[in-house]
Amino acid sequence: LNKEIIALTRQTGQQMTKSAWDFPESGSSSPAADEEEKPVSYRALVLTGYGGYDKIKLQVKSMKMPPQLKAGEVLVRVKACGLNFAELLGKQGLYELLPSPPVTLGMEGSGVIEAVAEDVGDRVIAMNRHGMWQELAAVPANRTFPIPDGMSFEEAAALPINYMTAYMMLFEMANLRPGKSVLIHMAAGGVGIAATQLCQTVQDVTIFGTASASKHETISQGGVTHPIDYRTKDYVTEIRNISPKGVDIVLDPLGGADTQKCFSLLKPLGMLIVFGAANCVTGQKKNLLAMAKTWYNQLTLNTLKLMQTNKAISGFHLGYIQDQELFERTLLALLELYRQGKIKPRIDSSYHFEEVAEAMKRMHDRQNIGKIILLPEPKKTEEKPKSNAEAAENVEKNEAAVSEKKEEATEEVKAEED
Ligand SMILES: NC(=O)c1ccc[n+]([C@@H]2O[C@H](COP(=O)([O-])OP(=O)(O)OC[C@H]3O[C@@H](n4cnc5c(N)ncnc54)[C@H](OP(=O)(O)O)[C@@H]3O)[C@@H](O)[C@H]2O)c1
């Protein structure tokens, strides 16, 4: 379907000149004159300002039907959305690719195509720079991919960002080969579990994974060779004790002083890939001191020094990948690995839109093992959050987590026009 839509768009000479990431939110273009317009309402999670969980409001918006889609767009009825660390950053004003509030959050989801030319009803994975956390989302057709048989909407929403990030880093940048060793930080998180599964598609890869101690059993079962509790032990010493020469590849989502440690752990000809700055996030709101510390402690070295170390440093950011061919090739390769049973997203828990604050708090408090999913479908009154039972058992009380008063983040807003 995706290919057909793209082909259709091209036939009519409506090729997208902007980056496919740069599409507007749903229902923002001019109406079609000849069709009767019926407004439909839909729920959306909107960041209304920077700060705590209370800045994310559950709003009811309305859209005229049939929808007014731009060239190359499809309208997706969203069934499940992925929560990413980027949204914790975005809430604090630390994610540069997110437009200023008010803005509908969400970069990935899954659902059913509701409108595009005559083809509707296909189950798709859908991605956009933002705006996926809403029941109806207009997305570029070339950012939708058919969901394989047997894959749930939750799995489909969990796959794109985490697995594409891990895949491109491991296979496009680091060229992972048999017999190599990889250090995966945040190994029990969304990207961490994706990276672990992808490492296992290559023979004899040794995986060092840092995670809170309560998650070690799960990540060991998932393929991490040496789980390390970074909160009570120095991971550099631990890794050197096991592998005195260090490791071949380090994936660094932390930044600051950790980047220096990661670089020090590389074997000669090894590669460090920096792809995040989680150390900037401490409390619920922006922490200027943590940001300054992360910035101040980052690794700086000149190219001559780099040459003398025989090591490589790369940076990776999926949001800046503009190459459509690379994008499609990667996602299709991942769907094939899923079909072959080699990868499978691990869903930590699912929350309804009303519970977005609890979902974000779970990630912020370092409790998740795998992916947290948001469900647009309204919560039934007696329903509890659908947590993965095993994950819930493994969750330890996080003494280090900043104790924060639980804030109610949802607010029904009367239907407003988009
Ligand atoms: N560059 C890119 O294109 C790209 C794309 C996707 C993600 N990322 C980055 O990859 C990292 C992982 O993202 P994700 O979405 O998969 O999230 P995630 O790993 O599921 O994030 C939550 C987990 O990270 C660990 N953690 C470490 N430091 C933390 C902190 N300061 N605050 C909260 N949790 C912390 C916690 O587990 P433990 O305590 O068990 O370690 C927590 O459970 C993030 O840094 C994100 O920005 C980058």
From TrEMBL:
Family annotation (InterPro entries): ADH-like_N (IPR013154), ER (IPR020843), GroES-like_sf (IPR011032), NAD(P)-bd_dom_sf (IPR036291), SV-ATPase_mito-regulator (IPR052100)
Query: What's the protein called, per UniProt?
Result: Vesicle amine transport 1
Q: Where is this region: Disordered?
A: 17-36, 375-418
UniProt GO molecular function: oxidoreductase activity
Native organism = Fundulus heteroclitus (Killifish)
Gene3D superfamilies given for it?
Medium-chain alcohol dehydrogenases, catalytic domain, NAD(P)-binding Rossmann-like Domain
Q: Which residues form the Enoyl reductase (ER) domain?
A: 51-374
Q: Where is the composition biased (Basic and acidic residues)?
A: 377-387, 394-418
One Pfam family from the record? ADH_N
Q: Which UniProt keywords apply?
A: Oxidoreductase
Sorted alphabetically, the Gene Ontology BP terms of this entry are: negative regulation of mitochondrial fusion
Q: Which GO terms describe its cellular component?
A: mitochondrial outer membrane
